[in-house]
Every structure is written in C-alpha cells, then in structure tokens.
Amino acid sequence: MIRFSPRAAAFATVLVMTPAVAGCGINSIPTKEEAAKARWADVQSQYQRRSDLIPNLVQTVQGAAIQERTTLTAVVEARARATSVQVTPETLNDPQAFQRFQAAQGELSQALSRLLMVVENYPQLQSNQNFLALQSQLEGTENRIAVARRDYNEAVRDYNTSLRTFPTVIWAKTIHGGSQPMQLFSATEAAQTAPNVNFDALNPAAPGAAPGGVAPSAAPGSAPPAAPAQ
Fold this sequence. Notes:
Elements: H1 6-23, H2 28-63, H3 69-84, H4 95-118, H5 129-162, H6 168-173, H7 189-192
Organism: Brevundimonas lenta
InterPro entries: LemA-like_dom_sf, MamQ_LemA
Subcellular location: Membrane
C-alpha cells in the first residue's frame, strides 16, 4: 500500500480544492475592483482634457474683443477649483471626497455653459477658426466624459454588488476583508448641464455688440485674468 506523508496529503488537498475555490469567485472582487479603477482613470483623463482646453478657449474669446470679464473669470476660477480637488483610486470609497470632486466638476460645467451661451451673441466668433476648432473639441470631450462616467458607474455597480451577494460576499468578509464599496456619480443638476456648443444660431443682428440685458463688467480692452497653470 502506498503511504502519503502528511505534507503530501495536504498538498494534494490544496490541488483538489483550488479549482473549486476559484470557481466560487475568490478572485472576482479584486478583478472587479481593478476594472472599476481602470474606468476611473478614463474619467480623470477626459476631465483633464476638458481642463486643458479652457485656457485656449478663454484666450480666444478674449482675443475677439468680447467684453464678458465676469463670465470669463467665473470659468477660470471654476477650473482652478476643479483641478484642485482630486480623487485617487485609493479614495474612491470616500463619500465626502467624491462629492467634492463631483461638485467642483459640475460647477465648471455650469460656468462653461454660461460662457458659451453668452458668446452666441458675438457673431464674429463664427468665422474664428481657432474658436470653431475648440467648439468641436469641447463637444467631443463632453461626450467622452458622459461615456466615461457611465462606464465607471457600471463597473462600480458590478464591484459593489460582488461585495453583497453570494458567494463572493464570503470572500469580501474574509480574504478580501479590506474591500469597501466605491462611490457612484449621481445625476446632479450640475452634472446634467453640459456646455451648449451649438453656434449655428448666432444672432447676426448685433455684430460686435454686447448681448442684450448683459452689461459688460469691464472697459473695452481690459483683459480677463490668465487661466491658472496646471
């Protein structure tokens, strides 16, 4: 009769049990966590792309002799706040940090929306090739932000569900005991206010004039503050 040492028997048991344990989803939680973090990196990339477009946008609007100092300043300040609030993959489970990040990005979306609504009253920008290029890039970036947020939310829901459902909840409470639910983007009013980048309806009746009901807040030729550096 063949006799096995206790060590060999233990090793054989591990070999037999490994496929069964793997089949119960022991690796599902870290796999889904990494997938959610990857989607978060996409979100950050698109928000950064939008932030990078803003200084050139502000300079282009200023260069067209548009006197909207207050509106331009609001965009610059909102951008500064948005870039100062960051959420890392390690803090995606921090509700307060995530809320601050979403609020700051939402404020920037609203500031951009107001700026782009105001400049519709200045037809001279319609022939500005740099502005038209920025219009196209901003529109594409806003679309990519929406897609990145959606993909991130889907990945996080999948991960969060694995922390609560059988059999992966067993591993969440034992082997992966440090795993915590991640935060989701909510459909706030600010988040839903994407900048309006359609300039087909420019008003040709008042070329170069300030928009009706909007009083310029600075003398002609005054420059808005420069956009903050990254």
